[in-house]
């Protein structure tokens, strides 16, 4: 159950500033790492237009920085969505993809690959597939006009399984595009163009801000819906609105990155272990730590076997699975 202690504004602001500073330092370090050696001086010269080196400028502004910013947005968005779903559904194993959104997005992408469309159309199909599943699960998961957590979860799992089967059927006839589909299913930031940042970044920032703004209401919901209503919370609007907003954000993320696992599942639990269970603290901390985690994972994915790449979803799974098993045994006591 979430904490209801009075929020200390000073410590809250200091904590979030330090987390922001940590995330900024991670971003700067990731910008330095790659197959071409770049110094802090190069970055400052390029950013303040004091350099004539077109090659370094292109590497920083057109290759590394857009991809790192995309990792920042994707990681932060997945972590916040995971924290919100865990609060709304009151299930510690809830995560952004459990409601079938990823399967719908992946099916849209695989279908577009099957039809031979360009990357931009593939991303559009992916987003459309995710949106279709969002509203299908939303309709199936409602009871008496309001979301029912257990019904929503089961609906999401069943719809996700159905679209996963469609994906497997589609992949049997993909041929040369099979590798691209596999990269999409595992999760990979390299499949997105730098222009993807221009729409994913603002969507994630705006939706994450709205969700974080409602964090105290997620605390109240843990007392039970009847109690929350008596305390003045419009539970129907809050649950339905939060589900749709978070899901649309995940749909936008899946359309550019594919399915990147463990970020939304693991990061909120790490934040609860470090900072307590109050969602007012957990959600902003999840954003910054999720962004940092994915930027680090993506840097590893593009440098470990350079010039080849490892899908970033494989890195997050390799790093996240042992940590989550540790949390299961020590914090949740669900196994062992």
Determine the number of helices (DSSP H or I, runs of at least 4 residues): 14
Low-confidence parts, pLDDT < 50 over ≥5 residues? none
Query: What is the approximate shape?
Result: globular
CATH class: Mainly Alpha
| Beta-strand fraction estimate | under 5%
Report how far apart the termini are.
Answer: 23 Å
- CATH superfamily assignment? ABC transporter involved in vitamin B12 uptake, BtuC
Largest sheet: 2 strands, antiparallel
Count every beta strand, where a strand is a DSSP E run of 2 or more residues: 2
Number of domains: 1
The SSE string, one letter per element, is HHHHHEEHHHHHHHHH
Strand order of the largest sheet: 1-2
Gyration radius from CA atoms, angstroms: 20 Å
Protein model, in words:
It is a single chain. The chain is mainly α and 336 residues long. The protein has a single domain (9-332), classed as ABC transporter involved in vitamin B12 uptake, BtuC (Orthogonal Bundle), CATH 1.10.3470. The chain is built from 14 helices and 2 strands. It has helices at 9-32, 40-47, 54-89, 101-114, 119-140, 149-171, 178-186, 197-213, 215-221, 225-230, 235-257, 263-275, 279-303, 312-332; strands at 142-143, 146-147. The protein has a two-stranded antiparallel sheet with strand order 1-2. A hairpin with a 2-residue loop joins strand 1 (142-143) and strand 2. The mean pLDDT is 86.
């Amino acid at each position: 159950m979430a904490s209801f202690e009075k929020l200390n504004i000073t410590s809250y602001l200091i904590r979030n500033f330090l987390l922001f500073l940590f995330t900024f330092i991670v971003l700067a370090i990731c910008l330095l790492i790659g197959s071409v050696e770049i110094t802090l001086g190069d970055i400052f010269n390029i950013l303040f237009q004091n350099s004539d080196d077109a090659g370094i400028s292109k590497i920083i502004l057109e290759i590394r920085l857009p991809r790192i910013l995309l990792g920042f947005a994707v990681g932060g968005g997945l972590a916040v969505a995971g924290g919100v779903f865990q609060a709304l559904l009151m299930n510690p194993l809830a995560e952004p993809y459990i409601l079938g959104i990823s399967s719908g997005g992946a099916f849209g992408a695989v279908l577009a690959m099957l039809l031979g469309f360009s990357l931009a159309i593939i991303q559009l199909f992916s987003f459309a597939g995710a949106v279709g599943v969002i509203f299908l699960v939303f309709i199936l998961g409602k009871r008496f006009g309001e979301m029912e957590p257990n019904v929503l979860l089961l609906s999401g799992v069943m719809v996700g399984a159905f679209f996963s089967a469609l994906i497997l059927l589609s992949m049997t006839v993909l041929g040369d595009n099979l590798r691209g589909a596999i990269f999409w299913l595992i999760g990979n930031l390299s499949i997105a163009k730098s222009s993807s940042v221009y729409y994913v970044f603002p969507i994630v920032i705006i939706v994450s801000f709205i969700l974080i703004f409602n964090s105290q209401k997620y605390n109240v919901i843990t007392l039970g819906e009847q109690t929350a209503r008596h305390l003045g919370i419009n539970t129907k609007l809050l649950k339905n609105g939060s589900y749709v907003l978070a899901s649309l954000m995940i749909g936008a993320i899946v359309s550019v990155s594919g399915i990147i696992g463990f970020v939304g599942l693991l990061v909120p639990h790490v934040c609860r272990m470090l900072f307590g269970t109050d969602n007012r603290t957990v959600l902003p901390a999840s954003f910054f730590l999720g962004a940092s985690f994915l930027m680090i994972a993506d840097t590893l994915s593009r440098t470990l076997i350079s010039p080849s790449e490892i899908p970033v979803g494989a890195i997050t799974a390799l790093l996240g699975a042992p940590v989550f098993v540790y949390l299961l045994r020590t914090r949740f006591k669900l196994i062992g």
